[in-house]
Specification:
56% helix; 133 residues; single chain; three-stranded parallel beta sheet; globular; alpha/beta
C-alpha cells in the first residue's frame, strides 16, 4: 500500500549519506514505512531528476548511475511510477549512447503507444521508436 511519495532530495540523501541529520531522517522514514508494510512512491519525474543529480552533483559515472538506480529499484519500501518504463530506460541506457532522459522519454512514449518519438537528438534517434525530426 502506498503511504506517500518522495522527492529527489530524499533519495539523494539516501544514496549520498552526505548530510548526517537528513540521512538519519530518511532512515527513520523508511523504517517507519517498512514496519507498517507501506511503500513510498517515486514519481517518474523524480527518477529523471535523480539521474541528473547522480551524474552532475555526485559525479557518478554512467556505470555508477546504473548501479545506483538498479539498487533503488530493489528497495522494498519504494514503488516506482511506470516502473516497467524506468527498467526499460535503464536497459537501453546501459547499451546505448543517448542520455538516460531520452531513453526514459522513449520508454514512456512506447508504454503510451505514442510512437514514433520525434526528437532532434541524434543519439536518441538511434533507439528503436525514435525518429529524427
Amino acid at each position: 500500500m502506498l503511504a506517500g511519495s518522495v522527492d529527489t532530495n530524499v533519495l539523494v540523501r539516501l544514496v549520498a549519506q552526505d548530510d548526517p541529520l537528513q540521512a538519519q531522517a530518511v532512515d527513520r522514514l523508511f523504517a517507519r514505512h517498512a514496519k507498517k508494510s507501506e511503500m513510498l512512491l517515486v514519481p517518474v519525474t523524480v527518477v529523471l531528476e535523480l539521474e541528473l543529480a547522480l551524474r552532475s552533483r555526485l559525479n557518478q559515472s554512467k556505470a555508477q548511475v546504473l548501479e545506483t538506480l538498479e539498487a533503488l529499484l530493489s528497495v522494498v519500501e519504494l514503488s516506482f511510477e511506470s516502473e516497467d518504463a524506468v527498467e526499460q530506460a535503464l536497459m537501453d541506457y546501459a547499451e546505448g549512447g543517448a542520455d538516460f532522459g531520452e531513453y526514459l522519454h522513449l520508454a514512456l512514449a512506447r508504454k503510451g503507444r505514442a510512437l514514433p518519438f520525434y526528437t532532434f537528438d541524434r543519439k536518441a534517434t538511434r533507439a528503436t521508436g525514435a525518429k529524427a525530426f
